[in-house]
Specification:
Length: 141
Protein backbone atom coordinates (compact mmCIF):
# COMPACT_ATOMS: atom_id res chain seq x y z
CA UNK A 1 0.00 0.00 0.00
CA UNK A 2 2.96 2.29 0.56
CA UNK A 3 3.70 2.30 -3.18
CA UNK A 4 0.08 3.16 -3.96
CA UNK A 5 0.09 6.04 -1.49
CA UNK A 6 3.35 7.34 -2.93
CA UNK A 7 1.89 7.24 -6.46
CA UNK A 8 -1.24 9.11 -5.30
CA UNK A 9 0.94 11.79 -3.71
CA UNK A 10 2.95 12.05 -6.94
CA UNK A 11 -0.33 12.40 -8.87
CA UNK A 12 -1.47 15.21 -6.57
CA UNK A 13 1.92 16.91 -7.04
CA UNK A 14 1.33 16.72 -10.82
CA UNK A 15 4.49 14.68 -11.42
CA UNK A 16 4.64 13.97 -15.19
CA UNK A 17 6.93 10.97 -14.69
CA UNK A 18 4.18 9.22 -12.71
CA UNK A 19 1.71 9.56 -15.56
CA UNK A 20 4.32 8.21 -18.02
CA UNK A 21 5.01 5.28 -15.65
CA UNK A 22 1.29 4.49 -15.29
CA UNK A 23 0.71 4.77 -19.04
CA UNK A 24 3.45 2.23 -19.73
CA UNK A 25 2.43 -0.43 -17.19
CA UNK A 26 -0.75 -2.51 -17.53
CA UNK A 27 -0.63 -3.51 -13.87
CA UNK A 28 -1.80 -0.07 -12.74
CA UNK A 29 -5.34 -0.34 -14.18
CA UNK A 30 -6.85 -1.87 -11.03
CA UNK A 31 -5.03 0.64 -8.87
CA UNK A 32 -6.24 3.53 -11.04
CA UNK A 33 -9.80 2.21 -10.73
CA UNK A 34 -9.43 2.07 -6.93
CA UNK A 35 -8.12 5.64 -6.90
CA UNK A 36 -11.19 6.74 -8.87
CA UNK A 37 -13.57 4.87 -6.55
CA UNK A 38 -11.99 6.15 -3.32
CA UNK A 39 -11.86 9.72 -4.62
CA UNK A 40 -15.47 9.46 -5.84
CA UNK A 41 -16.66 8.13 -2.47
CA UNK A 42 -14.82 10.81 -0.50
CA UNK A 43 -15.97 13.54 -2.86
CA UNK A 44 -19.53 12.25 -2.67
CA UNK A 45 -19.31 12.30 1.12
CA UNK A 46 -18.18 15.92 0.95
CA UNK A 47 -21.23 16.77 -1.16
CA UNK A 48 -23.63 14.54 0.76
CA UNK A 49 -22.70 15.74 4.23
CA UNK A 50 -23.56 19.32 3.42
CA UNK A 51 -27.06 18.88 2.02
CA UNK A 52 -30.55 17.93 3.07
CA UNK A 53 -30.85 15.05 0.61
CA UNK A 54 -27.55 13.49 1.58
CA UNK A 55 -28.13 10.01 0.14
CA UNK A 56 -29.34 11.32 -3.23
CA UNK A 57 -26.44 13.77 -3.47
CA UNK A 58 -24.01 11.00 -2.52
CA UNK A 59 -25.28 8.61 -5.21
CA UNK A 60 -25.43 11.26 -7.93
CA UNK A 61 -21.92 12.50 -7.16
CA UNK A 62 -20.53 8.95 -7.03
CA UNK A 63 -22.00 7.97 -10.41
CA UNK A 64 -21.06 11.32 -11.94
CA UNK A 65 -17.45 10.97 -10.79
CA UNK A 66 -16.97 7.46 -12.16
CA UNK A 67 -18.98 7.67 -15.38
CA UNK A 68 -18.40 11.25 -16.50
CA UNK A 69 -15.31 12.24 -14.52
CA UNK A 70 -13.31 9.19 -15.53
CA UNK A 71 -14.70 6.90 -18.23
CA UNK A 72 -16.27 9.48 -20.54
CA UNK A 73 -13.30 11.82 -20.16
CA UNK A 74 -10.93 8.94 -21.01
CA UNK A 75 -13.01 8.04 -24.08
CA UNK A 76 -13.15 11.60 -25.39
CA UNK A 77 -9.46 12.22 -24.69
CA UNK A 78 -8.56 8.97 -26.45
CA UNK A 79 -10.53 9.83 -29.61
CA UNK A 80 -9.36 13.44 -29.78
CA UNK A 81 -5.75 12.48 -29.07
CA UNK A 82 -5.92 9.74 -31.69
CA UNK A 83 -7.17 12.23 -34.28
CA UNK A 84 -4.27 14.54 -33.40
CA UNK A 85 -1.71 11.78 -33.91
CA UNK A 86 -1.25 10.63 -30.32
CA UNK A 87 -0.08 7.13 -29.52
CA UNK A 88 -2.25 5.62 -26.82
CA UNK A 89 -5.03 3.13 -26.20
CA UNK A 90 -8.27 3.68 -24.33
CA UNK A 91 -7.06 1.52 -21.43
CA UNK A 92 -3.81 3.45 -21.21
CA UNK A 93 -5.77 6.70 -21.19
CA UNK A 94 -8.12 5.36 -18.50
CA UNK A 95 -5.14 4.41 -16.30
CA UNK A 96 -3.53 7.83 -16.48
CA UNK A 97 -6.79 9.73 -16.03
CA UNK A 98 -7.64 7.48 -13.09
CA UNK A 99 -4.62 8.85 -11.30
CA UNK A 100 -5.47 12.35 -12.49
CA UNK A 101 -8.55 12.11 -10.24
CA UNK A 102 -6.34 12.02 -7.12
CA UNK A 103 -6.35 15.82 -6.53
CA UNK A 104 -10.13 15.61 -6.16
CA UNK A 105 -9.49 14.19 -2.68
CA UNK A 106 -9.79 17.81 -1.52
CA UNK A 107 -13.52 17.62 -2.28
CA UNK A 108 -14.05 15.74 1.00
CA UNK A 109 -13.92 19.17 2.65
CA UNK A 110 -16.74 20.44 0.42
CA UNK A 111 -19.28 20.16 3.23
CA UNK A 112 -17.57 22.82 5.37
CA UNK A 113 -19.68 25.95 5.71
CA UNK A 114 -18.35 29.10 4.06
CA UNK A 115 -15.14 27.51 2.71
CA UNK A 116 -16.34 24.20 1.25
CA UNK A 117 -16.69 25.73 -2.19
CA UNK A 118 -13.01 26.73 -2.14
CA UNK A 119 -11.99 23.10 -1.61
CA UNK A 120 -14.32 21.91 -4.38
CA UNK A 121 -12.94 24.47 -6.85
CA UNK A 122 -9.34 23.67 -5.88
CA UNK A 123 -10.03 19.94 -6.28
CA UNK A 124 -11.56 20.53 -9.70
CA UNK A 125 -8.76 22.82 -10.90
CA UNK A 126 -5.97 20.51 -9.79
CA UNK A 127 -7.77 17.55 -11.34
CA UNK A 128 -8.04 19.36 -14.68
CA UNK A 129 -4.33 20.23 -14.57
CA UNK A 130 -3.49 16.61 -13.71
CA UNK A 131 -5.75 15.47 -16.56
CA UNK A 132 -3.91 17.64 -19.07
CA UNK A 133 -0.58 16.20 -17.93
CA UNK A 134 -2.02 12.67 -18.00
CA UNK A 135 -3.32 13.07 -21.55
CA UNK A 136 -0.04 14.57 -22.72
CA UNK A 137 1.99 11.74 -21.19
CA UNK A 138 -0.38 9.00 -22.32
CA UNK A 139 -0.54 10.27 -25.91
CA UNK A 140 3.20 10.96 -25.95
CA UNK A 141 2.75 14.50 -27.22
Amino acid sequence: MNGTFARVVRAIRLDPSLYRQVADDDEYLTEAFLVVIVVAILGALGVGLGGQRALTAFIVELVNSVVFGWLLWALIAFFVGDMLGGRSSFVEMARTLGYANAPRLLAIFGFLPCVGWVFRIAAWGLSVAAGVIAVRESMEF
